[in-house]
Design brief:
Elements: E1 10-11, E2 14-15, H1 24-38, H2 41-55, E3 61-63, H3 65-71, E4 74-78, H4 89-102, E5 107-112, H5 116-128, E6 131-137, H6 138-143, H7 145-153, E7 157-161, H8 168-181, E8 186-188, H9 199-207, H10 209-222, E9 229-233, H11 238-244, E10 254-262, H12 273-276, E11 278-282, E12 285-289, H13 314-321, E13 325-331, H14 332-346, H15 352-358, E14 371-375, H16 384-391
Helix pairs in contact: 2-4, 4-5, 4-9, 5-7, 9-11, 10-11, 14-15
The structure holds pyridoxal-5'-phosphate (PLP).
Amino acid sequence: MKYNVDNKGYYGDFGGAYIPEMLYPNISELEKNYKKISSEPKFINEFNYLLKQYVGRPTPLYYAKRLSKKYKTKIYLKREDLCHTGAHKINNTIGQILLAEKLGKKRIIAETGAGQHGVATATVCALKGLKCIIYMGEIDIIRQSPNVARMKMLGAEVRPAKSGSKTLKDATNEAIRDWINNPTDTHYIIGSVVGPHPYPDMVARFQSVISKEIKKQLKIKEGTPFPDYLIACVGGGSNAAGTFYEYLDETKVKIIAVEAAGKGIETGKSAATSALGKEGIIHGSRTLLMQTEDGQITEPYSISAGLDYPGVGPMHANLFRTKRAEFISISDDEAMTAGLELSQLEGIIPAIETGHAFAIFQQKKFKPNDILVINLSGRGDKDLDTYIDYFKL
Ligand SMILES: *Cc1c(COP(=O)(O)O)cnc(C)c1O
């Protein structure tokens, strides 16, 4: 069994590029060039330089002593929350902006839901002096005003998506429309391991720096690069893909992917794609997605905007179907409780997305000698208002 992408852009039954004909030139330009450009020494040197000097990598692999004591197992935290802009998303935007530059693109577009990917994109556009346009649902613009202000401060133009439910999927549609109309000078930076091939593979490669570092760091701390468990939350799946990447074929390392159950899988208000999803096509990729009997995409729900997506990337759909990964669904309440607990046991306030990964201890027991690595995908500053409302702080 092979868990990484094949040369046609598939992970088992999932993936591919199901796109309108008008997008062919853009996607095939990318497909032809992404591996070639990103394996040139000049590209690798600049990517590594920026990850080190600008993002602040390598991020620490921190042994969480009090959390380990409480759950009677050995827990390491991969500190992606310490990346510049506060989450893993910038690993991908750095990679893609360098690629765009090498392809001679002058204009960058992106979609964003909560605004985290929009901020990471606006940041690298400022870094490179490229024009930046972020599509965002009109409702999200109101809900996430601090991130809208950040993007503007960084010099980006934020364009409201006014159709449909006025949220992430509508912003994605607007971005695709823009790309079709501007095929030569524009690069579209997708924010997770979703979309048509080559995006899922390209984003996973840029994020794989996370597992490359874990291997080295764990070897020094534990004498082995292999933990017993790798754990990460899954929205589209980019932080999880980065955490799992170097271990996909090392089947002695167990993989746990954590999804948002929202108010509960049975309530119709969740984003638990593996539990509820069926095979279908979303944003150019064959994958698992939440849909009605007649194939309409279901509105997802999660308290964390970053997990509020009706699908998962094709890599994760395949990890689920082949049972390489165990999928666990965590409710809003469980995630919030875990976020508070991590804050008070370790002095680290996580993003609510990340809180989902830490809530597995409410559902699963580990052995005292098990080595766990949890990807701490982002910090919780952006979520303070939600924490304040929830806990009446
Ligand atoms: C965006 C985000 C996620 C979800 O996106 P993935 O592509 O699944 O990683 C998770 N955690 C944080 C902190 C985020 O900002």
